[in-house]
Amino acid sequence: MVFIYDTSAIPQMPKPVNLIVATAQNRVIGRNGELPFDIPEDKAWFHEKTTGCVVVLGRICFESWPASLGGGRRPVVITRDKSLASARVPVAASVTDALAIAQTLPGEIMICGGQRIYEETLPLADRLYLTLVHAGVEGDTYFPEWRHLAWRETWQRESADANYRYTFSILERQRNS
Fold first, then answer.
1. How is domain 13-173 classified at the CATH fold level?
2. 8, 94, 102, 143 — which has fewest CB within 10 A?
3. Mean pLDDT for each 10-residue chunk of the chain (177 residues)?
4. Where are the chain's structural domains?
């Protein structure tokens, strides 16, 4: 006997919210609208992890990352500047609106910055793809403090280049049941 289940009546669970960031130990993520460090291995990690995803990001991040439209990525830009909107790039005036749009698009949701977007989404995050650069660097843009939240590290890899030591980690949010 074969059972056929009609899944259309099952309510869809919201997709998890993932954050991806490279941050220095002093939480610096930017300086003058650019990354404060140039780490090719981290850029490759970022591009690999965001390929095929819905990438939610602020206007400055979108404008400084031309590849946001490549690799099957679907950007959702948080801005009040409606002139950035196109058939391929929905814009939203708030994080809440951007996440609502992202839930309707195919692919995992990856929050890609900047500072204000990270501040608003960190409390909602289910997973954090973290590159921790083991240095203090000068900057004007920061990632919010995450270390006090209940994370469980599920993967880690140490690496280095000529300028920096850094750790790639995947952290999963521990939720109270």
1. Dihydrofolate Reductase, subunit A (3.40.430)
2. 8
3. 47 86 98 95 98 97 94 97 95 97 97 97 97 98 96 98 98 85
4. 13-173
Which tokens go with 70? 């490549």
> Residue written as tokens 């679907």?
74
Of 112, 133, 129, whose CA–CA distance to 121 is shortest?
112
Instruction: Give me 104's structure tokens.
Output: 């309707």
Give every strand in the sheet of 74-78, ordered side by side. Answer: 91-92, 74-78, 54-58, 109-111, 17-24, 127-133, 165-173, 151-160
Give 40-109 as a DSSP string.
HHHHHHHHHHHTTSEEEEEHHHHHH-GGGGSTT-EEEEE-S-GGG--SS--EESSHHHHHHHHHHSSS-E
